[in-house]
Hints:
single chain, alpha/beta, two-stranded antiparallel ribbon, 18% strand, binds nicotinamide-adenine-dinucleotide
Amino acid sequence: MRRLTVALERPYEVLVGPGALHRLGGLIAPYRRAAIVSQGPIVTALGTELLEADVIGPEPWIVTMGDGEGAKTLASVEALGGALARGGLLRDDVVVALGGGVVGDTAGLVAALYHRGVDVVQVPTSLLAQVDAAIGGKTAVNLPEGKNLIGAFHQPIGVVADTRVLASLPAAEFRSGLGEVAKYALMPDGGAVVDLLRIRTDAVLARDPAALAELVAACVAIKARVVAADPRERSGSRAILNYGHTLAHALETTAGYTLAHGEAVAIGLIFAANLARALERVGPDIVDRVHGVVASLELPVQVPADVDRVELLEAMRRDKKSKGGLTFVLPGANGLELVDDPPARALDVAFAAVGA
Ligand SMILES: NC(=O)c1ccc[n+]([C@@H]2O[C@H](COP(=O)([O-])OP(=O)(O)OC[C@H]3O[C@@H](n4cnc5c(N)ncnc54)[C@H](O)[C@@H]3O)[C@@H](O)[C@H]2O)c1
């Protein structure tokens, strides 16, 4: 079991490892009642493990929500809040968010709002949520006008990342998480992730829980440092978590969501490295390194054949983080930095490198 600390004003621990679920009982024991928010298929997939870990007893209190981005809505917040109220959840009780990023973001927001804030434990069950979404206290739901527009910062009191539960994760979702793993590997302090991937790629791809525990812990250590340096996303330093994401978001939109998020991030990382090279911010060694990491995780390095460069550019300009122009997180001599409006010539090189 690995214990990592997110060093905030009210610090909390991230427990990572095969069987970490067994520690959840201890975390919620001081509370009178715990309401588990999850999704039906997750409860079905993990039922036995939840029973064995004593997370649920014969009469568990599980409140379920819908699946997918379409369920991250204010309607879900209202429905969950109503269920918690009818079940008698009080101010000093606790919510357990058991699921991927959709459950974590929605249940986290419910916990931030219910009785003006109740404690929440994040129990991420997808690889993406274990390495990223469950840490840092960002919660949100979508509006028809855009993603994550209504949200709050609400740090959990603890995070329990059991790598055994990743066995039942659908293959596309596992690949999605690997895209974020590649991002961490390629961050300036990602050396530990790269080293692990070098020696344990096969075990990681085979979802060996011990290998995944090492990998998740190495990624969480990076995210925890980034979050502790800028807990409320004020200084801009948290923006480096969007490495690879400018192209990725545009690709997801233009490819009609046929690509998993992490696959789009992988291509976005290749694009960013080639853009940085074209701007003479990095040498060819960095481009090779990015290619090596992405390919080792069996993630794509080229955009799908029908994706159009003009459409990608338009989608990138519409990105919610853009200020009207194009903004990229790019490697350089000072680590990862925001770069605005690179010249068309450099963009051409980067587009060509990913086959757009
Ligand atoms: N708050 C943050 O800091 C942050 C960071 C990154 C992403 N996010 C958000 O996370 C969301 C994406 O999260 P995600 O990729 O986990 O998607 P998700 O929550 O939709 O989970 C993917 C699918 O896998 C299923 N699933 C999850 N765990 C399972 C398991 N162990 N066994 C079987 N099925 C399982 C889910 O039911 C779902 O169908 C997005 O909404 C994104 O905005 C938030």
